[in-house]
Amino acid sequence: xxxxxxxxxxxxxxxxxxxxxxxxxxxxxxxxxxxxxxxxxxxxxxxxxxxxxxxxxxxxxxxxxxxxxxxxxxxxxxxxxxxxxxxxxxxxxxxxxxxxxxxxxxxxxxxxxxxxxxxxxxxxxxxxxxxxxxxxxxxxxxxxxxxxxxxxxxxxxxxxxxxxxxxxxxxxxxxxxxxxxxxxxxxxxxxxxxxxxxxxxxxxxxxxxxxxxxxxxxxxxxxxxxxxxxxxxxxxxxxxxxxxxxxxxxxxxxxxxxxxxxxxxxxxxxxxxxxxxxxxxxxxxxxxxxxxxxxxxxxxxxxxxxxxxxxxxxxxxxxxxxxxxxxxxxxxxxxxxxxxxxxxxxxxxxxxxxxxxxxxxxxxxxxxxxxxxxxxxxxxxxxxxxxxxxxxxxxxxxxxxxxxxxxxxxxxxxxxxxxxxxxxxxxxxxxxxxxxxxxxxxxxxxxxxxxxxxxxxxxxxxxxxxxxxxxxxxxxxxxxxxxxxxxxxxxxxxxxxxxxxxxxxxxxxxxxxxxxxxxxxxxxxxxxxxxxxxxxxxxxxxxxx
Length: 545
Ligand SMILES: *[C@@H]1O[C@H](CO)[C@@H](O)[C@H](O)[C@H]1NC(C)=O
Ligand SMILES: *[C@@H]1O[C@H](CO)[C@@H](O)[C@H](O)[C@H]1NC(C)=O
Ligand SMILES: *[C@@H]1O[C@H](CO)[C@@H](O)[C@H](O)[C@H]1NC(C)=O
Ligand SMILES: *[C@@H]1O[C@H](CO)[C@@H](O)[C@H](O)[C@H]1NC(C)=O
Prior knowledge:
By secondary structure, the chain is of the alpha/beta class. It has a domain at 40-161 and 193-282 and 291-304: Alpha-Beta Barrel (TIM Barrel). It catalyses: Hydrolysis of terminal, non-reducing alpha-D-galactose residues in alpha-D-galactosides, including galactose oligosaccharides, galactomannans and galactolipids.
C-alpha cells in the first residue's frame, strides 16, 4: 500500500494541484514558502543546559547575542526546550509555565524577545507527556496552539516522546496522523506558527519506517529533525562522533529539502569541551553548506571571541540562507575526505571538503566532479579566509584531520552551465553506484567511475559516469548496463521524493547486496532509496522554486 492511498495526506500530485487554486487558506511548509523562506537561526537551551532553563538564561543570552553581534548576522530566534512548564495543566486545561523559572511569565519573555529583535519559540510533545515528563499536548492540540499564539510565540518544536499507537495503526502511521493534525491546526491559524517536527528522529533505526516518515514531513512543517539529539554538554561520549552521526543521516535526505522546508541535523554545540576548534568550525561549515537550521545550543555570554567570529562568518551564513535552499550533496567519499557540492541562487557553485580522517591529508577535486566545465577557469573564494584564487582543472587541497574548507566558485561568462554531478548511492547501505565491466554498488572510493553526471529534468534524466561520459545508464537485456548514449536503449530515468530512480521502461535501480539490478519499485524499501547529486529536480513535487 502506498501512502498516496491515504485520503487526507497531501500527496505531491495534490500539492501541485492545490497551488493552482488562488483562494486557499494560509498554508505552510513547501505549500507556502513565505512562512520560512530560509532556514531558522538562533538559540535553544537543550544541548547545553537540558532542563536547567529559566528567564535569566534567556534574557542574558539575548543581551549577549545583541552585544556580540549574533543578532545582526541573523541569529534572531530564542527557543525554549523541554521542562519550561508545570506538571499540571490549569483548571481550564491550558498549559502553565513554571513561575519559579519564569517569574515574569512567558508572554513577558516573548515581549522582551520582540523588543530586542528576536522571536520566541517553544517546545511541546505530540504524545501523552514530554520527554521530560511534563504534560504532552495529545488531546489538547488546538488549545495549546492557541495558548502559544496568545503568549506571542511563533515557532513550535513538537517532540515525539510517549506517543502510543491507536486504532490498530503502526507507530509510523500514528505519528503521521498526529503531525498532520498539528499541521492543519497551525497552518490554519491567522499567523501560522513555524512547525519543527521531531517525528523522523523516532524512526531512524529502521530505514523503511524512517523513509515513510520523511516522505511526509516536508508537507506538514518547515523543518524536521531527521536523527538523534546531538550529544548534550553533560553526556558521556564523543561529540565529534555525535555530529558525524547526524551528518551521515543528513547526507541521505538531500532530496527532501526545498524552499519552505529544511532538513534539521540538530543544534550547533560550539562550547562543547570535547571538540577541537577545527571540529567546531567544521560543524558550522557543514551545517551552513547544507542550508541547515543554525540553532546554537551553548552559553553564549561565555563563548570565546574566536567562536563568536566563526559563528558570525557572513559568507557562510549567506550560503546557509541562500534562497535556492539546495542542500549540498556528496560528490565523493573515501576514507579521508567527503566532498559536497550545491548551486547557489546567483549561479555560483559551492564546494565543501571535509577531512573525516585521523591525519592531515591531501586531495584533488576536478572541475568535472563539481559539475563544471574543465575548459573554463573559475574564480574561487575561500569562505574561511576570504582569499580569492583561480581554479583550472581542479582544486588541490591539504587539510588537517576534521578540518573543512569551503569555496564559493564563480563562473566566467560563457561558463555558467552546471550539470549535477557526484555520487549516486544507496542511502541505506551507503554503497556507491560504480561503473565498470558490470555496473555495481561498491564501497565509495572517490573514483571517476563513481561520479555520475545527471542531465535533463523531470522524467527525462540521463546518467553517465565521468569515467566514460559517452555511456549512459540503461536497463538492458540483462539488467542495469552502460551503453553508448542515444543508441536507442531505455536510458531515461525519473527521480521521486521517495528516492526511487525509475527507468522509463519501468523498474527501479536497486542495490541488491552490491549488485546493481532493476527491481519492481517498492516504496520505502531499503536498496531502492537512492541519493543523487544536488540540483536534480524531483519529477513529482510541483512546488515553486
Ligand atoms: C538560570 O539557569 C542558569 C543555567 O542553568 C543557571 O546558571 C542560573 O543559576 C539560573 N538562574 C536562576 C535565577 O535560576
Ligand atoms: C519549578 O521549577 C523548580 C526548579 O526546577 C522546581 O523546584 C519546582 O518544583 C517547579 N515548580 C512547579 C510548580 O513545577
Ligand atoms: C494517553 O492519553 C490518552 C488520553 O488521555 C489515554 O486515553 C491513554 O490511555 C494514554 N495512554 C497511555 C499509554 O498512557
Ligand atoms: C522496520 O519496520 C517494519 C514495519 O514498518 C518492519 O516490517 C521491519 O521488519 C522493520 N525492520 C527492521 C530491520 O527491524
